[in-house]
Each structure stands twice: as structure tokens, then as C-alpha cells.
Queue: 3 jobs
Job 1
Amino acid sequence: MEKDREDLNAIKRKTVMSTLSLFFQSGYSSVLGLAANLVLTILLTPTTFGIYIATLSIISILNYFSDIGLAASLIQKKEVSREDEKTAFTIQQILVITLVVIGFTATSAIAEFYKLPKDGRFLYWALLAGFFLSSLKTMPSVLLEKEIKFEKVVLVQIIENTFFYITVIILAIMGYGLNSFTVAVILRSLVGVVLIYRFSPWKISIGIDRSSYKKLISFGLPFQGSSLLALVKDDLLTLYLGRVVGFAGLGYIGWAKKWAESPIRIIMDSISRVLFPLFSKFQTDRGRLSRLIEKIIHYQSLLIIPAIVGMALVMSRIVAVIPKYSKWEPALPLFYLFCLSALMSSYSTPFINFLNGIGRVKISFYFMVFWTALTWILTPILISQYGHIGFPITMVILSSTFIIVVLITKRVVDFGFIKSITPFIVSTAIMATVVSLSFNIPAPREVSLLIAISAGIISYISSVKFIFKIDFATEIMDILKSKKNG
């Protein structure tokens, strides 16, 4: 019993450290990427920058087919043998090398389709080489993720991104144009491979064990099927929207969706990477799974609900305050709908991770089929009726099905959903009232906005702490202290 408690505490500490590391990496990469893109879009022509985006999108599609879910299969398995590792690595390399060969063979056709100049071909080849090098990182990364040691994976990503952006900026300033990306892509890939094997040594082995292959594929194919459906539901839909609503309408949709979903991207994307291996570790312990789900909903609600509601309250003021930002005012109705959609859909993510983590991957796959079909059925109908606002209406309808996900998960393991979110709904309602009243203070609009944001943050934290007696900062500090002392 004492050993189980120690193991649980160790996993808890790893989870907190991994999540904090992912938050830092996400924030650092976002700021660095934003600064680099600003510099690059000043230095490079739109055509040069567009060629990079176009060639990069080809590699993104290849990534969907690079391991048929084998990495996820290894993370999900409770015990992983050397044969499992060798089999997964070998199959992935066969797939990756096949895709790289096809990619190189198709160079002329792709260059003709995109009207790529000579430098564009070099960049395309560099991305294919980087795609192969990145595949070599999969196994060491999986071993670290399975042990919930994301801080090492994160460190590699931080160093990779730093090398990439600094190299691109320096070479672009020196006038290398598109070749700046070519050199940076190769350098990033080489640095990443060397570092990941330094942090997680793994002896490369080739071979396929039939028993391991069958077990890995039985989980991996449905899991990868969900990823493929996500490609159809999101990326291909974007191309469709550009055709039916025009690029101006797509611009409004992109702006509204990006802002509305930013809290989810920053918060939930980091948490999701930790949840899958964590659920896998406890897949046979229903009691711990129940408590874990409640904690996750608790922490998620603490951050997500006030962030999304707060953004909805102040966005119209932000658009009015920022110079040359009034052009986005027509997108505000879309933004509010996307906020509602983002809030509801955030409660699907942890439960889909839970179902994948305990091996119920077919259930999550069926959900993806349902969401993909519904997206493609409703979007054309609603767009024809309401124009570009029809798409966020579709997203609200789809997101409302999170209730079904919750109910199905409760059949597998019992947990308290309402009690986990109630404190934060009440505190957010108080915050919304305070923010709305703050806007009535007679002051310049910039000052009024700052007062409203500050008052909202203070009122929310105060409500959580003094009404519901919740102090997460203290709890996290206690966990970090125990890690230090342990």
C-alpha cells in the first residue's frame, strides 16, 4: 500500500512537471515564432514566404501516414517489450522511406503544380530529408512520453525551434531568401535527432515480430484513422470554405477561430499530451481513473472557463483600441460563436484521451466519424442559408455533443462532472458582472479596458479562493517541494 502511494505521488509529480514544461514550451515557441514571422514577413516577399508554407503543408499531410498509430500503441500498452519497440520502429521506417521516395519521385509534378523555382525545389527536398530525420526521433520520444518525462522532450523542441528561427532570421537578413528555410530545416532536424538520443538512448534495431505487429496494429489503425478523419474534418474543410465563402470570408473565420480557441491551444494541447500516457498507466484501476478525471476537469475549468468568457467580454474593446484592427469588427459575431463552441468542445478532449488511454479507441474513432460526417453535412447547408457565419453555427452544434461523450464515459467509470465545474462557473459569472460594470467607469477606452481586465482577474481569483476555498497555487508548490525533497 505504501509503495502504491509512493508510485502515485511520483506519477503525480511527473505529470505536473511535464504539464508545466509543455506550457512553457508552448508559450516560448509561440512568442519566438511570432517574432520570427514578423521579421520574415518584413524581409521576404509574399511569394517566397508562400512557397515555404505550401511545401510545408505537403509534409504535414505525409505525417498523417508516417506511423499508422504505432507510437500511440506503444504509449497505450502497459508493458512494452524490445520486440514491440523494434517492430514499431521497422514498420515506421518502411512507411517513411516509401513516402520519401514517392515524394522525391513526384518532385517535378509538385514543382509544376506550385510553380516552384529552383530554390523551392531545394526547400522541398530539405523538408523531405527533415521528415525522415524526424522519424528517427519517434522511439526515444515515445519512451520518454511513456514515463511522463515530457520536460526532456520539451527541451529538445525548444532547442530545435530556437536553432530554426535564429538561423532563418540571420540568413534572411543576409539575403539568402528561400534558402534560409532550407538550411534551417536541415539544421533543426539534425540537432533534434542528436539531442533526443542524448536524453533517451535507444539502440536502433530492425525486425518485425508477428505477434507484436498484430497487437500494435489492432490499436494503431483505429487511432490513426481518427487522425486521418481530423485531416478531412479540418484541413480539407478549410480548402472548401475558401472556395464557397471567398478568401475574405475565410479570413474572418480564421481570425475569429484562432482567437476563440487560443486558450484551448495553450492550455488543453499541453494537457492532452500528458493525459494519454497517464490514463494508460491506470487503465485497470477504476477508482484512480475516476479521481483523475475529476481533477482534470477541475483544473481545466479553473483556466478555460474564465479565459474564454473573459476574451468574449473584452474582444470588441480590443478591436476598437488596437490601431488598424477595426477591419476585424465584422468577424466579432463569428468570434462569439466560436467561443461558445470552444468552451463546450474543451470538455470532449479529456474524455476522448481517456477512452484512447484505456484501449477503447474504437469508441473515439466512431465519434470522429460522426463529427466528420456531421461537419460536411451541416456546413454546406448552413453556409448556403447564412453565409460564412454558417460555419461557426455548425461548430456550436457539433460541440454540444460533448454531453454524449461525457455520458458514454460515465458508463465506463463513474465521476462527478457538475461538482467539478460549478465553482468556476459561479466565479466566472461574478467576474463577468465585475467586468461589465468596470466598462462604465468614465475613463479613456484604453484605461477602461485595462481596469476591466484587472478587475476581472482579481474578482475571479478572489471568488475561487474565498468563496470556494480553492488555492491551487499552494497545492502545486507542495507537489514541487515534495519532488525536490524526494
Note: Residues 478-486 have pLDDT under 50 and may be disordered.
Job 2
Amino acid sequence: MSEQAFRQYYIQGVTRQGRAFRPSDWAERLAGAMSCFRPGSPGGIRGIGSHIGFSPYCVPRVVDGVKCVMVDEALREIEPMAWDFVMNFARDNDLPVVGVAPA
């Protein structure tokens, strides 16, 4: 089987030990911290209104009844430190990261 190049990943809100990650609004908090990274101008900061809503690169979701954060690999391209922050958050909190197969 060939290695698949994923462009999106889900950080799942259930630890590898099977416990729900807390606090219950963790996904919204994480996505909110990344809200300034949006398509457009260099550096990811996108002017007035960029603080309203989530970035398309880091969005809270519920997948199969599990709270998750969808992270697009485009975040790594526009701000590698933001990508590292999100991936290190998952690793430090023992949260699985699952690649989403391209459609």
C-alpha cells in the first residue's frame, strides 16, 4: 500500500486511554487561538474582523460523536510555528491525530 499524502487531520478529543479530553470546550479554545491565520496577506494576520469566527485551517468539528479539531496542512505552509503549536498540543495531551483521506 502506498503512503498517502494527507492535507487535513483531525485531532480527536479522546485520549489514547479512552477518556474524553477536558475542558469540554477545548476544541473551540484551540481553534480560537488559531483564528487569526486566514488565507490572504503574508504572515496569516488578516485585518479587521479576523478575530470573528474560526480560521478555515483550524476548525472545531464533531466526528462520529467525538469532539475534534480539523487542521489543514496549509497552516504549516503559512505559519510553521502555528502548525507546531497545534500538533504539540495534541502530542502533549495524548490526543490522537488522524489523517483524512482526500476525496
Note: The chain has one domain: 8-100.
Job 3
Amino acid sequence: MRRHKTTKPMRRCIACRESKPQEELIRFVLKGQDPVVDTDGRAEGRGFYLCRSEECIRNAVKRKAFNRVCKRNLDEKEISSLIGQLSGSYQGGMDVKES
């Protein structure tokens, strides 16, 4: 009997564009047109992923990656709110300020 090799799902970070195992990334989902952090990874909607590093979070803001994946322009308040959700949702408190 043949055994199938189980592989972990890979996802691509919107900032650094590297593919990594899904559990190593933060998942966001669009609720309507608004992006929110999906802490349990099961929310319905179009999902996109970001590395858990502060550098990738800064690069996503700097390069307007959130605007690209949401297909609309997010204002500074919306992006700040999204980054604020990160620091409240994940251990280590990813405190990132917009540059």
C-alpha cells in the first residue's frame, strides 16, 4: 500500500513575496471591502497573508501591499487600525508605526 506524503499548505507573504508554511503567517480576510485579522484562520472571505516579522509589516505599509490586495486605497486610519489588530491579536505585540 502506498502512503501519500502530507505537505503543509504554503502561502505567500504580501510584503516579501516569500512562500512559507501557512501556520507561520498572519492571515487577513476581507469582510466586505474591509480587511481584518483572521486569528483562527477560518473566517470566510478572500484571504491574504503576511509574515509575523515587523520588517514585513513595515514593508507592507510602505509598499502599499494592503491597497494592492484589497484592490482599493486604504487611508492611514484604516491601515493603523489593521496594524493595531495585529498587536492585540498575537503574542509579542507587533508594535509597528507607519513611516
Note: Residues 92-99 have pLDDT under 50 and may be disordered.
